[in-house]
Amino acid sequence: MKITELFQRGEFPITAEVGPPKGFHIEHLMDEVNTYLKDNVTAVNVTDNQSSVMRLGSLATCKAFKDEGLTPIFQLTCRDRNRIALQSDILSAALFGIENLLLLTGDHTTLGDNPQSKPVFDLDSVSLIHMVKTLEQGFDLAGNPLDGEPPKFAKGAVVSACSDSVDVQLAKMEAKVKAGAEYFQTQAVYEPEKFMRFMEKAKQFGVPVMLGIVIPKNAGMARFMNDNVAGITVPQDMIDELKKDKEKTKAGITGVEISARIIRECKEYCQGVHIMALGWESKVPDILKLAQI
Amino acid sequence: MLITQLKSKDAIAPLVKGKTIIINCHGCKEVYFPEHEAIEMQNELSSNGNVSAVITRDYICNPDNLSLQLKKYLDKIKEADTVLVFSCGVGVQTVAKYLEDIEVYSACDTYPLPGFQGVTPLEFDCGQCGECYLNYTGGVCPITACSKSLINGQCGGSKNGKCEVDKDMDCGWERIYIKLEKLKKLDTLKYPTKIRNYGNPYVE
Ligand code: SF4
Ligand code: SF4
Fold first, then answer.
1. Contact check, Cβ <8 Å, A169/B151
2. Predicted complex ipTM
3. First to last CA, chain A
4. Nearest chain B Cα to A112, which residue?
5. Average pLDDT, stretch A218-243?
6. Mean pLDDT score, B123-145
């Protein structure tokens, strides 16, 4: 199932993001996904060596999820592969029956756990989207024809809706739409008003946007994101809320309440929700229930 | 431009084996050479009596020039077990080719130094990409001013106008946007998707 078909039918898809383990044992991840996500979300989005930390591959994990009856979204970044490897992996995904993609530039290698590695960036997010579109037309990037029926995907991209340079981000979003992006998911949103203002401008592009949610686990995490993570500002009153009842926050209840509140406030303005639980997959069902979606 | 830096003493000392000749290249404006540190290091290396000559010349990267300059030392060089070269990587390669039967080692690491002669180093740089994008980007180079050399717009990593890789570095794409906004030329950014051509034989 392609996520774009759901948007076309006017449905409101919910996706959750998971990170593969640092190792090849996925039993624990599979348990979490089967217990907390399978019946609650439309698709599971698998990160590609997120934050440049080396892990099990996104494609292999997507295949394992597919075999389990889940709908995976294959994340692909330009950091580690040149255009030959990227195109080849897209064809591999088609072989595995993976139909949904999320196409990104990727964090710089120096931010991760193997900072000595060579950053590739042969392509970037825009040319990566263009590349997939070219494959869908039956050709590789150099114009050589593919054998047989070309693959077809739902091509997703990301945008930083609450970025301090939102106009620069909107310009990039437009370039992605022109290159062939069919849906977007946003970086974590903590400021619904900013998100709504962003959507006012973004709706001219006519592509569905999924609201990005990162569950705030505690005040320390919020402050860390404020200092270090681009495009995220957790407002002070939200940090105070996380600090107020430490036991409640520790149990995850405050984070669930905040996440659900943001979804409720923004849902009229977006076409779906994307939850990045960062290990708190068990909280996803509670958030969705409280948000009434 | 290039910058050469001395390798560590621990890396260089074991290379000085048997009779050793040291060759310095001081001759070119393309390369920043750490003269004083090199002399200090060579004095230390000479203290064990192994160094039989220190030769300081210029443009050793030119093979004809090199053979002329080394002519009067050839007897000494032929007796040597090791030749240790303090120069950029090109100089070391030229010496190694010229003295084919002798072990030639490099005492330096070579890095690119932003900028060219006559411009302020470090402020502006050209990565010699072979397909200049400056006409689309308000005169700000996306290859050298963006840590990922992105040519289709900003990544999601910029925070408060700074690059995700280095908090002291302005995000190149933020600079491009601000410049084009000022010129009322933001539409320039609506170009069709660009893709680098690394197949160009003249591009690194
Ligand atoms: S875009 Fe930058 S690297 Fe390429 S030629 Fe122009 S100044 Fe040089
Ligand atoms: S933050 Fe700006 S300069 Fe740094 S890699 Fe991203 S777009 Fe390039």
1. no
2. 0.90
3. 20
4. B165
5. 93
6. 90
